[in-house]
Amino acid sequence: MRLGFFSDAHGNIRSTIQCIKMMRELEIDDIYFLGDAIGYMPSGVEVLELLFQENIPCIMGNHEAMAIGLLPLAEDRDRVYKIKPLLANLPARLMTEIKNTWPITRVLSLHGKKVLLVHGRPSDPLEGYLYQGVQPLPEEVEGFDVIVVGHTHRPFVKHFGGTILINGGSCGLPRDLGNAPSFAVYDVDNSKAEIHRFEMDINGLMGIWPSGSVHESVISCLHREG
After folding, report:
1. Where in the sequence is the domain holding 17, given as residue range(s)?
2. 27 domain-assigned
3. The sheet that has 156-160: what strands, in order across it?
4. How many domains does the chain have?
């Protein structure tokens, strides 16, 4: 049995479509989204619609938490996040779906393996960061065979004791290689995880939105070369 994990689409509808298509082509058994469908780029509503149409189980990211009022949304940060403009066009049914069906954490029990899904890190599910070079706290991994996170936009697979830590990176806004979105695949039967990357057409992506609708810092990130 193979599981696919992706996160941090951030309104990048083109890349999200491509990511899901690749996972379907790999014949992955179950696919999970680890939050931050919205923010930064203008097509957040389209990303949410796609996730619901594809019946993909989702957990909440910090950007969804800001959108529903669970976390504060600072005015200066929203000049980059652009969540308030999204809210003006977000159908009420989608807001309700996020509130009612996107948990902050999700635990899977599969073939004797216990898998924890969080957007940030176990000790701070919405806003915590778990990078490849950061050691988790022992109590964060206790009792889990696999922990899958997002939020950093940087993919990795590492082992901490008997626990596999997986970060699928970002399917919409990578922070290491800007034109190389990523997702993760975990094989439950052999306890192996791997990162998959694909190429993104940045110029084509930017052409679908009006000039000025994406903050310059986000555009710079998309062009990052590592």
Report:
1. 2-104+172-222
2. yes
3. 105-110, 113-118, 146-149, 163-167, 156-160
4. 1
Amino acid at 22: M
Which CATH number do you get for residue 62? 3.60.21.10
Residue 86 belongs to some domain of the structure:
yes
Contacts of 211 (CB under 8 A, 6+ apart): none
Q: Is 68 left (phi over 0), alpha (psi -120 to 50) or beta?
A: alpha
Contact 58, 35 (CB under 8 A): yes
Q: Are strands 105-110 and 163-167 parallel, antiparallel or unpaired?
A: unpaired
What region does 151 belong to: left with phi over 0, alpha with psi -120 to 50, or beta? left
Q: pTM, whole model, 2 decimals?
A: 0.97
Checking if the pLDDT of 105 tops 80, the result is: yes
Instruction: Confirm if 6 and 184 have CB atoms less than 8 A apart.
Output: yes
* 146 within some domain: no
Question: Percentage of the chain with pLDDT > 70?
Answer: 100
> Can you read off the two tokens belonging to residue 154?
């940087």
Question: What does the pLDDT look like over 107-165, one tens digit per residue?
Answer: 999 989 999 999 999 999 999 999 999 989 999 999 999 999 999 999 999 999 899 99
- Specify if 130 maps to a domain: no
| Nearest Cα residue to 138 out of 112, 160, 154 | 160
- C-alpha–C-alpha distance, residues 101 and 122, integer Å: 20
